[in-house]
Amino acid sequence: MNTTNDKIEIINLIEQQSNRINRLEDKFNEFQYVHSKLNKHDETLILHDQRMQTIMKKLLELHTDLQNLASVKQHIMTACAALGGAMATWLIHFLPHL
Fold this sequence. Notes:
Layout: H1 4-94
């Protein structure tokens, strides 16, 4: 039998279910918003990672260049020392004859 109390109870149950559905929709919308933000954050992190890899590659190239320059400097210093030694020897041997 459909009494007034039964109808009221059914209406209350429908309202409760409707409220639950609305809360779930709100939670789902919140989840979608957070998910969207996380995706954008992930994209930003990927870009930063790519930039860092490029920077690290450039730093490695600079390090190699600096090592090469240090090697050239050492060769120049060795050559200068040898030249200085040769000049000193020349001065010692030939200066008295001048």
